[in-house]
């Protein structure tokens, strides 16, 4: 099978254009192309969208480089004058929306200067830069300047899916046959008897179409919910004088937005204030070099990303008036990238479709030949009537219906159904899957490289210990008894409140709230406990320059001016790095005294002691300067004020989640910026660092020669003091040795590793927008246990599709062979077109609903991951398919050829009764085989069955409708009511397949690998039940 599917292989992430074109061109037998490829990206549309994007980017590039230069020579008076409309005046504003949009889009600094800069624009849009927009004005601002929403394609209605389902070529042919059958039937047999056969086919088609459309429509609603969730982005703004978080969809012109590293600029705007703001404009202009934004170059464009620094901006243009809005129109079209499983099953469907087409043609030819021979032997070869035409039409309808059954259109669509269901469930469990293939790939993951902070730990940090003036003090509930002199206390408070990237604000209820990273919040809370006041500190000392925390430098620095013109630099960061920058230490009197080697050794011991208790250690230092440096802040000459130890407790349930991964053959590796001792302590607490595992520092790892790196790679369980580049290198090398790597990330610098990995997992709470955009899955609660749940669902998707494939292939084999053999021997097919359409619905739409949406069981996480090259249809599946097919063919064959004698059927309706028994037995064989398919290897197929309400509902509906067809719809379905003895016989025939399944599962077919592509763990539990 693998040789036949060589054209149907694509990479799970970033598949090549050649591979995508190859498998599309290889799909030859398709009943309904519109439905089959509905969820698959259209390469032509994608190419057109790329062309549009390039045109928009070129237009923006011209605005950046040509128009800016041209504007220098244009007289302000010659510019376009925008007349203020009465509506804008009455609303209390003094500038038109188009004027604002043009100013920012064209980087028109002269117009901005003429308007009075950011403050002048703020006055024109009637807003205070300090207080922000008033909530009561939001509606009128949206009315005048527009909402911050982008044009989207309208949602498809239910009737669109009905029309799409009707595009099935085989159904169209059957509809034509049904209409002709009605016409000929009424002419020969009269009304209403002559209408029954054709009307039965039409009613069956309507039923198939409606069930298909309902399933597809519900699926589209699930994807719409997921898309809506993907687009939810929150941003910090000042409104009503308070700092608060709002959705970017709710932004209005005049909003004062707070930007920090990793944020996406949510609308066009003007820089108000900030430090070292660098903007990545590549998403708009295609330029890779970051743009520096400041008072001289104040324009910010929607869709660009903050690469460095922080700032406040005034929103001037929103929604479709921005260039990003126009670009978003092209991004919303084209469909999803296909997943490897979808492509593989398209290949399986194509191969089986070709076989089915061959059987259908043969069946039609054999039936026609037998019909002609019968007429010749009876001497009526020259006499043709409308009844003969009706018989030939019947044969053609049967052949077409065989194609309907034989082409397993539902196989690739079942993957989409299963993935949509899994993604919906994962969203409820706080995991947002951004790319379909990620859910599938996660089932194959062999390694998870996880951050520590917030993922393994709670992210609720508090300063637990502090070293200051040669004394270690521990937190006592909500207080610290430091007993410091006033000079030392003032220095410590300055080091805390001057050097911070966070803010202390009041919420609407007047309560104090600290905004910022968990580490910053912990230190500021410590400062507040000491009696510090952030407003007082900011009033007394002006900030001149900020060097924000950086994952590479692992420190943050700030330059402040003090009374009398003196300049002081503060720095804080990783203790062993910042300690090396110190030459002095503060004594108990607040004086700076030299830092001897002996004191350095003693402080290092304190740092090691803190770290061994799983505390994150930071040094707070300062230095006085004669004048402000023109370049970077100094890297030496500092005075050590304090060493703080920050506790971040391990999340409840993490140890169990890590154990689950290890039982499932998934290696968990912790990659953290903390020092080695802290990392090892946390890793041991989580159960990550085990006997024989290696804990290594990032610097040691990155400087290793390639052969040493390859040798140690499988043993690495902890990487401490790592840089984002180290994480990227680790991921890259793990993939080279065949690992399927999932990696977590939250910062902007994690984007390369997230992009490089097989599955990128961004943190929903701590993660930046840049990290989220480069991720495949967003972990909404930042919890490691949620990552394990994604892996569990990924495995469930794979095994569910295997169950469905096993079930559908069994129906395919039996339906094809029984109709073909019967046609060859008896000259008629035991299953009519209407009956085959009903069987097709059982095995296609209803089968997919029942088997492809089953929730995961714990047994899935007690096996090794699915190998990249594992065969999808395993030997165990072939064993079950062949065994069940042989049983069904033997039973149905005996009934077909000897049923009347065995069952003692006599009378004019004996043939009708026998055909109904054959049809009923065939359906019940499929019903019981669907239950068998719940487990490919295990004997107990009932375990957890009633936990899947979808499965139970489908089974109940199938049996219920089968009773209705047989007992009440005989005129349309060519059936007659059966006695209770015959019903019992049909049920027993079906039930025997369950006993057969137990026997089949006792036949060993695979030595080392499990039925579903999982390798059984040597220490795993018994899997016989």
UniProtKB/TrEMBL annotation:
<dbReference type="InterPro" id="IPR024750">
    <property type="entry name" value="Ca_ATPase_N_dom"/>
</dbReference>
<dbReference type="Pfam" id="PF12515">
    <property type="entry name" value="CaATP_NAI"/>
</dbReference>
<feature type="transmembrane region" description="Helical">
    <location>
        <begin position="351"/>
        <end position="373"/>
    </location>
</feature>
<keyword id="KW-0813">Transport</keyword>
<keyword id="KW-0109">Calcium transport</keyword>
<dbReference type="GO" id="GO:0016887">
    <property type="term" value="F:ATP hydrolysis activity"/>
</dbReference>
<dbReference type="Pfam" id="PF00122">
    <property type="entry name" value="E1-E2_ATPase"/>
</dbReference>
<feature type="transmembrane region" description="Helical">
    <location>
        <begin position="393"/>
        <end position="422"/>
    </location>
</feature>
<dbReference type="Pfam" id="PF00689">
    <property type="entry name" value="Cation_ATPase_C"/>
</dbReference>
<feature type="transmembrane region" description="Helical">
    <location>
        <begin position="980"/>
        <end position="1000"/>
    </location>
</feature>
<dbReference type="InterPro" id="IPR023298">
    <property type="entry name" value="ATPase_P-typ_TM_dom_sf"/>
</dbReference>
<dbReference type="Pfam" id="PF00690">
    <property type="entry name" value="Cation_ATPase_N"/>
</dbReference>
<keyword id="KW-0812">Transmembrane</keyword>
<keyword id="KW-0067">ATP-binding</keyword>
<feature type="transmembrane region" description="Helical">
    <location>
        <begin position="194"/>
        <end position="214"/>
    </location>
</feature>
<dbReference type="InterPro" id="IPR023214">
    <property type="entry name" value="HAD_sf"/>
</dbReference>
<dbReference type="InterPro" id="IPR008250">
    <property type="entry name" value="ATPase_P-typ_transduc_dom_A_sf"/>
</dbReference>
<dbReference type="GO" id="GO:0005524">
    <property type="term" value="F:ATP binding"/>
</dbReference>
<dbReference type="InterPro" id="IPR001757">
    <property type="entry name" value="P_typ_ATPase"/>
</dbReference>
<dbReference type="Pfam" id="PF13246">
    <property type="entry name" value="Cation_ATPase"/>
</dbReference>
<feature type="transmembrane region" description="Helical">
    <location>
        <begin position="169"/>
        <end position="188"/>
    </location>
</feature>
<dbReference type="InterPro" id="IPR006408">
    <property type="entry name" value="P-type_ATPase_IIB"/>
</dbReference>
<dbReference type="GO" id="GO:0005388">
    <property type="term" value="F:P-type calcium transporter activity"/>
</dbReference>
<keyword id="KW-1278">Translocase</keyword>
<keyword id="KW-1133">Transmembrane helix</keyword>
<keyword id="KW-0472">Membrane</keyword>
<dbReference type="GO" id="GO:0005516">
    <property type="term" value="F:calmodulin binding"/>
</dbReference>
<comment type="similarity">
    <text>Belongs to the cation transport ATPase (P-type) (TC 3.A.3) family. Type IIB subfamily.</text>
</comment>
<keyword id="KW-0460">Magnesium</keyword>
<dbReference type="InterPro" id="IPR018303">
    <property type="entry name" value="ATPase_P-typ_P_site"/>
</dbReference>
<keyword id="KW-0479">Metal-binding</keyword>
<feature type="transmembrane region" description="Helical">
    <location>
        <begin position="911"/>
        <end position="928"/>
    </location>
</feature>
<dbReference type="InterPro" id="IPR044492">
    <property type="entry name" value="P_typ_ATPase_HD_dom"/>
</dbReference>
<feature type="transmembrane region" description="Helical">
    <location>
        <begin position="949"/>
        <end position="974"/>
    </location>
</feature>
<keyword id="KW-0406">Ion transport</keyword>
<dbReference type="GO" id="GO:0046872">
    <property type="term" value="F:metal ion binding"/>
</dbReference>
<keyword id="KW-0106">Calcium</keyword>
<dbReference type="InterPro" id="IPR023299">
    <property type="entry name" value="ATPase_P-typ_cyto_dom_N"/>
</dbReference>
<dbReference type="InterPro" id="IPR036412">
    <property type="entry name" value="HAD-like_sf"/>
</dbReference>
<feature type="domain" description="Cation-transporting P-type ATPase N-terminal">
    <location>
        <begin position="112"/>
        <end position="186"/>
    </location>
</feature>
<dbReference type="InterPro" id="IPR004014">
    <property type="entry name" value="ATPase_P-typ_cation-transptr_N"/>
</dbReference>
<dbReference type="GO" id="GO:0016020">
    <property type="term" value="C:membrane"/>
</dbReference>
